[in-house]
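Running this now, will post back.
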Amino acid sequence: AWAVFDKSGRQLLRRTFEDLFENLAEHPLLYRPRVVYDAHRGGWLIGICAVSLDLKQSWFFLAASAGPDPTGDWWIWALDARSDASMGGFRPDALGLAVDAAGIYLTANMFTAHGEFAYAQLRVLARKDLGSGGVLHGWDFWQIRNPDGTPAFGLQPAFHLRSTDGQYLLNAMTPGGSDGEAQGLVLWQVVTRVRQAPQLARKLITTLPYRIPPNFQPAKGAEGIETGDARLCQPIYGHGRLWVAQTVRANWGESRNRAAIRWFEVNPKTGFAIQCGTYVSPVDHYFCPALAVDP
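Update: finished.
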């Protein structure tokens, strides 16, 4: 479900996603919702992954408020999540959603019907189509690969507090295996020009090495809590910098590892990490970070 609250905490509206998107497909499974505010248009965007009950069809469902009031009318779309109509049975996960002055950006990890990771996908939609509620036109990038040729995983578009000359995205290099080590972030930029297809550029940002964090075990014999992997939260772009965080493994010289939060400040122009810090405790686990930056 999703809800609208005013700044005093009073609930103004509560709806289910099934109610919002009920006319797009027959009883789909809905998961991984994302909500962003489109400051360029003065409205709200909701994105969510959808898959048919037989797992043969999948979509990105997208909703845009008709104006700045989220309790009013919404336009809705069902976008085939596959990059190619011949790619039957693939489903999206780990949805990313962002918007800038030029377009709307959807990212996802695509999986087979058997749950195997297939590829990372980026869809760029022309924002000029958004204001009328008509057909959305766009471009797909799929089989996205890191500079070393390995598949990109967990690609996330940045939420922009300021206008830029192109949309930024980030993903972390993936550690190999449960005890593997990785080093570096991959910075992507989508550059959109009038009457031309978007271009996607990349560069590797050197960082300290990191490993996948351990799960949190609340008590002996109790069921553990998954802390996730080393993928990034949604980056924030502001003041000419990108801010992002991930969950990593930390150790205080004892036999037990801890889950910790590592954050980065990145200069996208130079491709260097300016700052890096780790939020960690010898007795607690910290995981699943989220960031906010002053406008």
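The chain has a mean pLDDT of 91. More later if anyone needs it.
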